[in-house]
Amino acid sequence: MRLRHALPLALLAALVAGCTSSAISPTYTSANPDIMRISDERPANPEKRIEDLGSYCVEVSETWNAHGTTPDGKSLWAKDTARTVVPCD
Fold first, then answer.
1. Which of 2, 44, 60, 67 registers the highest number of CB atoms within 10 A of its CB?
2. What is the pTM assigned to this prediction?
3. What single DSSP character describes residue 14?
């Protein structure tokens, strides 16, 4: 009878100890710094470019937008890309 009450208490204690000991720490890195950067200053937007895709052309414009902050207060910048079909010259 005594073991029946001890087992749930032991499982509860193990669950609480496991949840409090290993918090997930975020990582703010990217293998490709051309799409995400961490900085207090906004990165410069690249110039628009035209890509010839055979039967049509696409104008590509890229902008850096703020996407929150890191725990130490630095800004997270992510590059957004817009494509528009344009006539080929």
1. 60
2. 0.56
3. H
Instruction: Please answer whether residues 76 and 38 qualify as being in contact, where contact means their C-beta atoms are separated by less than 8 angstroms.
Output: yes
Contacts of 59 (CB under 8 A, 6+ apart): 48, 49, 50, 51, 83, 84, 85, 86
Mean pLDDT of residues grouped by 10 in the chain (89 residues)?
69 65 64 81 89 92 90 87 91
Helix then strand then coil, in percent of the chain rounded to 5, is 20, 35, 40
Tell me the per-residue pLDDT of 62-86, one tens digit each, with 9 for 90 and over. 999 998 888 888 888 889 999 999 9
Task: Give the whole-angstrom CA distance, residue 38 versus residue 75.
Answer: 6
End-to-end Cα distance, the chain: 86
CB 83 within 8 A of CB 48: no
